[in-house]
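Morning F.,

Quick status update on the modeling queue. The single chain you submitted on Monday has been processed. Sequence for confirmation:
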Amino acid sequence: MKRLGYYNGKYGPLEEMTIPMNDRVCWFGDGVYDAGPCRNYKIFALDEHVDRFFRNAAWLGVEMPLTKEEFKDLLNKLVHEMDSGDLFVYMQLTRAASVPRQHPYTEGPGSLWVTLNPAKIPDGRVPIKLITREDTRFFHCNIKTLNLIPAVMASEAAKQAGCDEAVLYRAPDRVTEGSHSNIHIIKDGTLHTAPLDNLILPGIARAHLLRACDALGIPYVEEPYTLDDLANADEILMTSSSNLCRHADQLDGKPAGMKDPETYDKILTWLIDEFTNETGG
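Structure tokens below.
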């Protein structure tokens, strides 16, 4: 199977899957999601993604229809239905159907979705281009909810500008994260990353980046930093489950970063080696 879709116990070719119109995702975007890469039919950092998925569901009060172990077994079963083992695995839980449409919800298990699409992780060697946009999202950015309109609009603005990602900031100038990534900087050999508060998502790739710094003896600080810090950084890094780690050579149409390739290469090599080793050499 090239692309697979799963919904509440049924699965098949993604293009043939349907959902009920009264699923609350249609009315309210009521649910949470997670996603991660798969290589050689092995989902990378599976436990971390599943733990975060369940944690986000609990924060929204959406009941999981499966245990963690049952869900991991399901994901591994679905992965092996695919023609290729190099995939991007997306998982989503929406609150149970609501009839008629109403804001209050009833208790009961949520609706479980999974999609699998062919994908490969970039090697991180080609620099990316960034733009900045004001962060207009709400104040639960730490929860991976399905309410992503501000992120969608920022990502589209990046595409229209010929860039790869939009870096979001809260007025007046605090950098938070990317529209679908975490953003970090390197300055004078130290990695700077935003703290884990309600303004950023606690990314799995971000956690692995800090793990790499620990292993390599690279110091890091988890503190707010500004747009000026971003513009004057030695390196600007983007991490996400679909990219692992990439660095930028342009910010708002001006040259940026690319001043400490040695530190970036150490980090990238460690992350790629970790990913390769965990997913089958």
